[in-house]
Write a structure and sequence with these properties.
The chain is an alpha+beta fold. It has one domain: Immunoglobulin-like. Strand 3 and strand 4 form a beta hairpin.
Length: about 210
């Protein structure tokens, strides 16, 4: 793990995704529109793999302010997301902004794991940004998704927990953006503090 900033990692991740996507066809704009894959059903070992460009968004059910986040993994699944406001009384914070782009492979393959890193402020309203700055990371597994998708999401939960998913509207498959992940959701991962990255994060705001 290097100690370079997440902004640099998002830049490298975007360039990596662009190269991968360029090898399989022209990359479309990240409009959040649903895409349907013409290949085999999810999890199938037959059919040619296709990688689509998808936008990256964040939802935040925690009281922390998310400055930024990045994900990295196999098959073009590398990208970064925007800042996300703390949770509101009536629902999650953020969710409106979207950044381009990440690769969304079709078909889905079991046990696809990604690394996610995020920078947060635990005291977003106290006026001293140094007080609550921390950098976190986790290894997450991507839940199964269908052939018609509408972007990639990182969902931040209280207790430094996080989940990632490719949205496909499938609530029973845990991929509906309108459904908060359950406490026993097997795809929710526990984050851990990255001390080296936290130190660099704090240096930026001195």
């Amino acid at each position: 793990m290097t100690t370079s900033s997440l902004s640099s990692k998002r830049t490298r991740s975007w360039l990596t995704a662009l190269v991968v996507l360029g090898t399989v066809g022209a990359m479309s704009a990240c409009s959040g529109e649903s895409r349907s894959a013409p290949s085999a059903s999810p999890g199938s070992s037959t059919g040619k793999e296709t990688i689509y460009a998808g936008g990256v968004r964040g939802l935040n059910y925690s009281p922390d302010y998310i400055h930024s986040f990045s994900v990295s993994g196999p098959r073009g699944m590398e990208g970064g997301g925007p800042n996300v406001s703390p949770a509101q009384k009536d629902g999650p914070g953020g969710g409106g902004a979207e950044m381009c782009c990440i690769g969304i492979p079709q078909p889905w393959k079991p046990d696809t794991k990604l690394e996610i890193e995020w920078e947060l402020d635990r005291s977003p309203y106290d006026g001293d940004i140094q007080n609550g700055l921390e950098a976190m990371r986790a290894t997450v597994t991507v839940p199964q998704y269908g052939s018609s998708t509408s972007g990639f999401l990182a969902i931040f939960l209280p207790g430094d927990r996080v989940k990632v998913m490719v949205a496909d509207g499938n609530a029973s498959g845990h991929n509906d953006v309108n459904v908060r992940p359950a406490d026993d959701d097997p795809f929710v991962a526990q984050g851990v503090r990255d001390d080296a990255q936290t130190k660099e994060f704090k240096e930026r705001y001195r």
